[in-house]
Design a protein that fits this description.
single chain, alpha/beta, 10-stranded mixed beta sheet, globular
């Protein structure tokens, strides 16, 4: 089967790798260079635990207060747009406890495939930087710790994947470099650190070796369609015909879906990260760490560490002020006081695709019979790339289980 994938971020590349391995003929079309945007600048954490969608109970209130200042894991950028208002109302609806449970159960379908997916990459001989340090969500307050752990009470299968660490000695036994006031944590020992550029480079090499095509600097401008079937994606270099199409263009998926008559409830969520370089391994975090007060993620990598931010809903353009980067570096030093910060890259900023209910969007574009969406992964594009690829393969080959309907764009309605 001839398949065209639009978008060469980590999700599109993972899909191409999976489909080529199944014997399909695959062409990837990318408007710029492969592996840019959030695929490049993400937190470098691969988690088999964090199945909770961004719209959680109470999160919209926190985000709304952020408009008037404050330091929040989630914040909102005001926009005067009817589509954006509808998006926020849908997101608010998703924070209802019963809807949050539905979203978490759906997202955990992908989460349960994550670690096996990356293990499979290693078995296939893909060469990329990865570490098995696990991840920790750390707390200085017992009350905040207990509130965070309570979220797991409704999800016993998820709770089995974490270890509770109470008391400074238990926490610092896992990571002795943490600040002394960190006294509580939950630890996911099976989580991974994966350097995103290295895994994308490995995927591209595998794709090219398997006979796949990667066409860069070739944006899709329109589609040739008839009777609900896309015949070709029209690019700046001409039309490309195929039997099946996948739109995996991150935030750009919304504009591409609109060319097919579908209003996708997806908006950008801005984020930023900074890379701190140092050679002394003894000073690195022992695990990826997510903080409770400053709401940052810190991940150890070969060259030092990466620190990244939360979710800025509706940010129209990727940007980060030098003062924000300075604050992020200061927050790293608060949690890791001994980390040297004299060799820091300029900050990265990007836009991550955020669905209205926080659950990835994987399935047929409503009104089309051969064109699929694969977007809306928010901060978990790297984590969910292999899982999404397997879902897409099952959908395209016609043997998808019933529960994959949880990802279908049709859940938002035929026209959204």
């Amino acid at each position: 089967m001839r398949i065209v994938i639009i978008g060469a971020g980590v999700v599109g590349l993972a899909a191409a790798h999976e489909l080529l391995g199944a014997g399909h003929e695959v062409t990837i079309v990318e408007s710029g260079d492969y592996g840019q945007g959030p695929s490049h600048g993400n937190a470098a954490l691969v988690t088999g635990v964090l199945s909770f969608p961004v719209p959680a109970p109470g999160s919209i209130g926190i985000a709304a207060r952020s408009v008037f200042g404050g330091n929040s894991a989630i914040s909102i950028t005001p926009q005067f747009s009817l589509d954006y208002l509808r998006f926020l109302l849908r997101m608010a609806w998703a924070t209802k406890k019963s809807n949050f449970v539905v979203g978490t159960d759906a997202q955990d379908i992908l989460t349960r495939m994550v670690l096996d997916g990356f293990a499979e990459y290693q078995e296939q001989g893909l060469n990329f930087e990865h570490h098995t340090g696990g991840s920790m969500h750390v707390f200085t307050s017992r009350q905040a710790y207990e509130q965070a752990v309570a979220v797991f009470d409704g999800f016993p299968e998820l709770k089995k994947r974490i270890r509770l660490l109470e008391g400074a000695s238990a926490v610092h036994e896992v990571d002795p470099n943490l600040a002394p006031d960190v006294e509580y944590a939950y630890f996911a020992p099976d989580d991974l650190q994966v350097e995103p550029d290295s895994v994308m480079k490995a995927l591209v090499a595998s794709i090219e070796q398997a006979g796949g095509k990667l066409i860069q600097h070739s944006p899709v401008t329109s589609f040739e369609t008839s009777d609900g079937v896309v015949r070709a994606a029209v690019t700046s270099q001409g039309p490309i015909e195929a039997d099946q199409f996948i739109i995996a263009a991150g935030v750009g998926s919304r504009g591409l879906a609109k060319k097919l008559g579908y209003s996708l409830p997806l908006f950008p969520g801005g984020g930023y990260s900074v890379d701190v370089h140092f050679e002394d391994d003894s000073l690195k975090p022992a695990a990826s760490v997510l903080t409770d007060v400053s709401h940052i993620a810190v991940t150890p990598l070969d060259w030092g560490l990466r620190a990244s931010s939360g979710m800025i809903i509706g940010q129209p353009e990727p940007s980060v002020a030098p003062t924000v980067i300075d604050k992020l570096i200061a927050q790293v030093q608060e949690i890791y006081p001994d980390v040297p910060v004299d060799d820091v890259d300029p900050g990265w900023a990007g836009l991550r695709p955020m669905s209205a209910d926080g659950v990835p969007i994987i399935g047929l574009v409503p009104g089309q019979r051969n064109t699929y969406l694969a977007t809306g992964h928010a901060m978990l594009g790297l984590t969910y790339a292999p899982s999404t690829a397997k879902v897409l393969r099952a959908l395209i080959e016609g043997d998808a289980p019933e529960d994959y309907r949880a990802f279908a764009p049709a859940r938002f309605g035929a026209h959204a």
